[in-house]
Write a structure and sequence with these properties.
The structure holds 2 protein chains of 2 kinds.
Chain A: H1 9-14, E1 18-22, E2 25-30, H2 34-43, E3 46-49, E4 54-59, H3 63-70, E5 84-90, E6 96-106, E7 109-114, H4 119-133, E8 138-141, E9 145-151, H5 155-162, H6 167-170, E10 178-181, E11 184-187, E12 196-202, H7 203-215, E13 219-220, H8 223-232, H9 268-273, E14 278-285, E15 296-299, E16 302-312, E17 317-325, E18 333-338, E19 341-348, E20 353-354, E21 357-358
Parallel strand pairs in A: 3-13
Antiparallel strand pairs in A: 1-2, 3-9, 4-7, 4-8, 5-6, 6-7, 9-12, 10-11, 11-12, 14-17, 14-19, 15-16, 15-18, 16-17, 18-19, 20-21
Helix pairs in contact in A: 2-8
Chain B: E1 8-9, E2 14-18, E3 24-28, H1 30-36, E4 39-43, E5 50-51, E6 56-62, E7 66-70, E8 75-80, H2 83-86, H3 90-93, E9 101-105, H4 108-112, H5 117-127
Antiparallel strand pairs in B: 1-2, 2-3, 3-9, 4-6, 5-8, 6-7, 8-9
The chains are: A alpha+beta, B alpha+beta.
């Protein structure tokens, strides 16, 4: 099978990237040391090719009402123009079709950013729902757009250096808010636990933008560091921490699921009918070794399983997200089966690290 | 970095150095460390453990993945490199210097029969295609 490529493929190779097959996309895993790249983002600034993710525009009268029904989080929470909201999109049975971000631009236009691996399925589902609930809406996959994430404490300054024309419109953005600056759509969002922007722009302009950022001192960061950054920040990865078989309330997503309002949404009845029996917690390994996905966790309340695990460059310890029985509490000692050994780990409140610092306590 | 010609190699990417006293020193190759990326954990076998050729006996873990290390020949473990416990990244910076364990092989002929650098390079090249 031929791998899909982003418009930055040649740039990655020219910058010495080690390329890997990432869900059918030919993507950079690192440009040298993944640990150095991780620290680069926590301490300074780095840029990520996220062109494989998909931008979708939902336009027309009643778009807010449609999203209010389509998504588990409540679109009514965002009223400030440009404001973003993280949400799960659920199956009627309650499983997670995808996690996504919606941006409220006008009452006729919401922008949606979805995961690469689920994009086609997501759009088909949105169109299917719109056909019956909101036939006048147009749902458009913006295949003409590219996306670059610039992340780290110095990220915004670097973007303003390269795109000075966007500074006036983006200087006052709060966290999780975007501004439409003509060709450039600039959002103060990300997947690292650091400040920064995600910039959407025409595909044909992205390579020049990438090189301009690099000239301004922004280093490219691969998917390897992207995964350890998001894990430290306690952010879920679709397909690993949740999928269509997982209740979002058992995936650390309760804060994004609005069950309090009268509003009905797809999956709500299933969630109310099946209260969660498990929950997602953070683990820090106390013994030497590395936590990985699918390792079994022995707790005083029964068995659990690691959903995402790795080495944390910030904590210099191995950390994980694990789905465990509800009775497990922060501070509990648990055992993780790694090969032929049972190793000691402690349950912690996550995120583990954000804004350059460790934030969980042992 | 080319594969040193004074070493022997396995298809599972271990290098093997024969010492003057007939014991062997084992590590993983430049190619292996490059595939794995930043090393964060090494678990070496304990001295005294008897190994069969191709037996899993050590684990190296990078941020990205865990990989088994195999005994290149049958024999007994005589030492493990405890310096790697606190500095596994030495495998990245100096793969042919950062040894993982030492063995006393059952037979010198088994060691002599391992691949030389040219044969090993051919395996690395074939994996790249």
């Amino acid at each position: 099978m031929t791998l899909k490529t982003t418009p930055l493929n040649a740039a990655h190779r020219a910058m010495g990237a080690k390329m890997v097959d990432f869900g059918g996309w030919d993507m950079p895993v690192n440009y040298g040391s993944q640990i150095d790249e991780h620290h680069q983002v926590r301490n300074d600034v780095g840029m990520f090719d996220v062109c494989h993710m998909r931008v979708v525009d939902a336009k027309g009268d009643g778009v807010r009402a449609f999203l209010r029904y389509l998504l588990a989080n409540n679109a009514d929470k965002i009223t400030l123009p440009g404001k973003a909201l993280y949400s799960a999109m659920l199956r009627p049975e309650g499983g997670v079709i995808d996690d996504l971000i919606i941006y409220f631009m006008t009452e006729q236009w919401f922008r949606i950013v979805v995961n690469a691996g689920t994009a086609d399925k997501d759009i088909a589902w949105m169109k299917q729902q719109a056909a019956t609930r909101a036939p006048n809406l147009t749902i458009t996959s913006r295949d003409d757009l590219a996306m670059v994430a610039i992340q780290g404490p110095n990220a915004r300054a670097k973007v303003w250096q390269v795109l000075p024309q966007t500074k006036a419109a983006t200087e006052s953005l709060v966290n999780f808010q975007a501004a439409d600056c003509g060709e450039y759509f600039v959002a103060r969002t990300g997947y690292t636990g650091e400040d920064g922007f995600e910039v959407m722009l025409p595909k044909e302009k992205v390579e020049a933008f990438w090189y301009e950022l690099n000239k301004a001192g922004v280093k490219p960061i691969g998917l390897g560091a992207r995964d350890t950054l998001r894990l430290e920040a306690g952010m879920n990865l679709y397909g690993q921490d949740m999928d269509e078989s997982i209740n979002p309330l058992e995936a650390g997503m309760a804060w994004t699921v609005d069950l309090k309002s009268e509003r009905d949404f797809i999956g709500k009845a299933a969630l109310l009918a099946h209260p969660p029996t498990r929950k997602l917690v953070g683990l820090v390994l106390l013994d030497r070794g590395v936590l990985r996905g699918h390792q079994k966790v022995q707790t005083a309340h029964g068995e659990g399983e690691i959903t995402s695990g790795s080495f944390s460059p910030t904590l210099e310890k191995s950390i994980a997200l694990a789905r465990v029985p509800n009775g497990v509490q922060i501070g509990d000692s648990v055992q993780v089966a790694i090969r032929d050994k049972m190793l000691a780990a402690q349950v912690v409140k996550y995120p583990f690290a954000r804004n350059g610092k460790t934030v969980c306590s042992l | 970095m080319s594969n040193p010609s004074n070493l022997k190699y396995t298809a599972s990417h271990e290098w093997v150095k024969t010492e003057a006293d007939g014991t062997i020193t084992i590590g993983i190759t430049q190619h292996a460390q490059e595939l794995l990326g930043d090393m964060v954990f090494v678990e070496a076998p304990a001295a005294g453990r008897k190994l069969k050729a191709k037996e899993e006996c050590a684990v190296v873990e990078s941020v990205k993945a865990a990989a088994d290390v195999y005994a290149p020949v049958s024999g007994e473990v005589i030492a493990a490199n405890s310096a790697l416990d606190g500095a596994p990244e030495q495998i990245n910076s100096d793969p042919f210097g950062a040894w993982i364990f030492k063995m006393k092989p059952d037979s010198a002929a088994d060691v002599a029969a391992l691949m030389d650098a040219t044969a090993y390079q051919a395996i690395v090249d074939s994996e790249a295609h």
